[in-house]
Amino acid sequence: MPEPLLLLSDVHTHIGPYHILHGVDFSVPTGELTMLLGRNGAGKTTTLRTIMGLWQASSGRIRFDGRDITASATPDIAHAGIAYVPESMGIFTDLTVRENIVLAARSGPLDKTRLDWILGLFPALKRFWNLPAGNLSGGQKQMLAIARAIAEPRRLLLIDEPTKGLAPVMVRSMIEAFKALKASGETILLVEQNFYAASALGDNVVVMDDGRIVHAGAMSDLVADTALQQRLLGLSLDAHQ
């Protein structure tokens, strides 16, 4: 079998005196959407930040596209083709929507065909194209953050809780956008607390608890097993429909 696009092997991460990740092992296959689930404080965000080099792994290995990036600097990891959308979104609220997206295309002028594709994913951004990003709703800001991440082609998207705090109608819009991203062949590692959204999108699922991987497999298997949902996450899909 071909090597997965992203592979974490026995990754440990310390933040100051705190040991946050304890031997994390999982993979992200090319062209699929992998969900990273777990209760609050399980280590999901730390995992994304460690992959991105924002926090250095204390030990273990992170391989991306066959290359060891464990000790690589964040700019080098980004240049290799990984984009990260943090929970805080990281947009420039004083700049217009257009300026936010143009600035994200660091390699040169934004390709018009790609821009049309992005605006097709997130039509609201076109309506607010020349307005300050600070005027957008929470869901629209999240859409802008993702649009910035895909302003240029990326090999892997790391996205942290894109539906957090969003109204149900906006969650449904976000699900449809991610379905379109999947259909285009994007590889995505997505942290999500909304199990309904996770079940609608995930090809694969990795579940964390207390900085460790406690389950990995097909998302469809977890969706079908309410007892496993309850044991791993303290919830069931039926309660989140």
TrEMBL record:
PROSITE patterns: ABC_TRANSPORTER_1, ABC_TRANSPORTER_2. Pfam families: ABC_tran (PF00005). GO terms for molecular function: ATP binding; ATP hydrolysis activity; branched-chain amino acid transmembrane transporter activity. Keywords: Amino-acid transport, ATP-binding, Nucleotide-binding, Transport. One of its GO terms (biological process) is L-amino acid transport. The keyword ATP-binding applies. InterPro entries: AAA+_ATPase, ABC_transporter-like_ATP-bd, ABC_transporter-like_CS, BCAA_Transport_ATP-bd_LivF, P-loop_NTPase. Residues 6-235 form the ABC transporter domain. Belongs to the ABC transporter superfamily. This is ABC-type branched-chain amino acid transport system, ATPase component. It comes from Microvirga lotononidis. The lineage of its organism: Bacteria, Pseudomonadati, Pseudomonadota, Alphaproteobacteria, Hyphomicrobiales.
